[in-house]
Amino acid sequence: MTQIAEAPADPRPPQIELRDSLLRAGLLLDAGSDGLYLRSETFESVVLGVQAAVRRAAAGEVDVSLHFPLVMVKRLLAQTDYVRSFPNLLGCVNAFGGGDHDHAALLRGIDSGDSVDDFLGPTDLALAPAGCHQLYPTQRGTLPDGGRTVAVLAHCFRHEPSVDPARMQVFRMHEIVYLGDPARARSHRDRWVERGLELLRGLGLAVEPEVANDPFFGRAGRMLSANQRAEELKIELIAPVASAEFPTAIASANCHQDHFGEAFDIATGGGEVAHSSCVGFGLERVALALFGQLGIDASTWPSATREQLGL
CB neighbours of 304 closer than 8 A, spacing ≥ 6? Predict the structure, then answer.
């Protein structure tokens, strides 16, 4: 009697393999929701080393450096058009605003198994979904001749739960933003594509540029994505993280044209609506690319990499 061999089980996705390797090594700790992790001292040291490397690469070019918190005022979501473009990624802050009577009802409800959400109401705050969005309200008015370059270090949140460790729900962006005339904005973006490649390859990473688009939501979003790609407004620096077959964007360089200048009344020295562009490095994603490409044990990484990261 001929025996029929059983089909081999499907291999585990490489994203899950990488996540589990990071968890087993104690580099990340499961925080109870896909894409939400606690970070070990070693992982954090790599992230801070990447941050320092970006700061060195931008030395001499930045006019001012700013650090932004995870929480921002909710009205910015409409002013930047983020709520139109990415409603699926948003997170807003709810809070308890009642008195003693409401508190007593909350306690009874919790004891009865009700959700705490039933007793919370909206606030004027949201979780910041992008690094530079909190910058533009601070730039209203007329820019100096030649424009302005600002470094932004920001904590961000996107409601995008995933088993892929490169899609963390909470992450940090280090961005270099230019505001000024159209030609300089485009030049800033193009220069930072090359500088970003040099920086990341200097850390020992395999990385390549690729024309890309943002995942705008809805039917109208598909047209925005097509236009963005056709005009080559977004270029991602992609690298193998979990596998070479599924590379991940670890940095991106973007031309916003006059979108933010118009929305926030920012003008050039010549009185025209300011254009803007930025390069953003996903600090955790760069760290994950290093662990994915160079090995889970950072002590075995090339000495040049460790030296640049201060390990």
Answer: 204
* Integer Cα distance of 237 and 247 in angstroms: 10
Reported pTM: 0.91
Mean model confidence pLDDT for the chain: 91
The neighbour count for residue 73, using CB atoms within 10 Å, is: 14
List the structure tokens of 235. Answer: 């270029």
Domain spans in the chain, listed from the N-terminal domain onward? 14-91+129-309, 94-125
Listed in order, strand segments (DSSP E) in the chain are 28-33, 36-39, 64-68, 71-73, 92-95, 121-127, 141-142, 148-157, 170-180, 208-212, 234-239, 248-257, 266-267, 275-282
Average pLDDT in the 271-286 region? 96
Q: Which CATH class is domain 14-91+129-309?
A: alpha beta
Place of tokens 């209203």: 140
* Angstrom distance (rounded) from CA 259 to CA 214: 15
Map residue 281 onto helix, strand or coil.
strand
